[in-house]
Amino acid sequence: MRGLSLQAAPGIDWADVADWWAAWGTPISIVLIVIGAFLAYWIVKVVIGRVVHEVVTGVKRRADVADTEALSHSPLAQVRIVQRTRAMGSVLNTILAWVIAVFAAILVLGALGVNPGSLVALAGFLGAAAGVGAQGVIRDFLNGLFMVFEDQLGIGDVVDLGEASGVVESVGIRVTQVRDVNGTLWYVRNGEIVRVGNKSQGWARVLLDQAVPYDADVDAVEQRLLDVATRMSEEAEWTSRIIDKPETWGIESVSAEAVVLRLVVKTRASAKDDVARELRRRVKAGLDDLGVTLPSLQKVVVQGLDDTAKGRA
To answer: pLDDT-derived band of residue 137, with 50, 70 and 90 as boundaries?
Structure first.
């Protein structure tokens, strides 16, 4: 039956078709492989993008907010879900792009007539070369994976990476992009990151070291600082940002010109700077009402304990 169907197709010279395929089959196969690789990557990218979009949309819907920035007013876990999902989506896009590229390269080599044994030998050679000459790239790759999957940082986090600090704009498989407060975009190799200070996870502390004249009533000033911070924490605008009762930690240092008192307020990580600025303004007004004249900063060096020296949770 198969022979009859071939004879029933008039005008087709199968010998010419075979010759044409012998001449052009390999280039056509390579082109089809490349097109297929690009199509596969496009499909993967669309699927990952759709999943990330659905996760972010679902979180925003549950938080009843219109944009991602407003999630800072919702529970921290929801913010972390958004940041981590976007970071993982970026990393997965890069990983799958490399996987598809390697697979397409193997198919192209197969179309060119390279036998499987040679492909295995080539893979071994490339592996040895990678082990010797691409150790940095492999270290970047592995460290980037661990940072994302361990949730050390995510897009939108404020981080300190040692040489660079600022807001994370992109987490790639090899490089993390951080924009600092001056607007400079830093490209930090993942393998060079030995520590990550994440200022967007959990909570933060506002430490206000206030210098007052040596002859001032320390107890009255300390009580005024606490009253100012407590009233602020009870206002509706700041209730969601300040997560614990303000405290005073007493005298941090004493000099001939001034006594330094420390006021401490525990806040959400994303609200620390806003709380600190408003608190300084209110403390200044509170001390003015108390009639306290602040000493000159040219004479006083405020040297309290380091942020972590107290060791308080």
So the answer is: confident
Q: What is the pLDDT of residue 48?
A: 79
Identify the CATH class of 203-290: alpha beta
In the beta sheet, which residues pair with residue 178? 168, 186
Alpha-carbon span 31 to 139, nearest angstrom: 34
- Report d(CA 300, CA 260) in Å as an integer: 9
Q: Give the pair of three-digit tokens for residue 71.
A: 């999630």
Q: How far is C-alpha 164 from the chain's CA centre?
A: 13
Can you give the pLDDT at residue 128?
Answer: 65
Helix 135-149 with 76-111: angle, nearest 10 deg:
140
Task: Please report, to the nearest 10 degrees, the dihedral formed by the alpha carbons of residues 150, 204, 278, 297 taken in order.
Answer: -120
Dihedral pair phi/psi, residue 85, rounded to 5°: -60, -45
The SS3 call for residue 175 is strand
Strand order in the sheet with 258-268: 203-213, 258-268, 247-254
Per-residue pLDDT averaged across 149-164, rounded?
83
Count Cβ neighbours within 10 Å for each residue of 64-87 and write b for 16 or more, e otherwise.
Answer: ebeebeebbebebebbbbbbbbbb
User: What pTM was estimated for this model as a whole?
Assistant: 0.56
What residue segments make up the domains of the chain, in order of their start? 2-133, 158-198, 203-290
Tens digit of pLDDT for each residue in 75-130? 455 556 666 677 677 777 777 887 888 788 877 777 777 665 666 666 666 666 65
The pLDDT of residue 99: 81
- Residue 209 exposed, middle or buried by CB count within 10 Å (0-12, 13-18, 19+): middle
Assess if CATH 2.30.30.60 describes domain 158-198: yes
- What is each CA distance from 303 to 212, 215, 229, 246, 255, in whole angstroms? 13, 19, 22, 21, 10
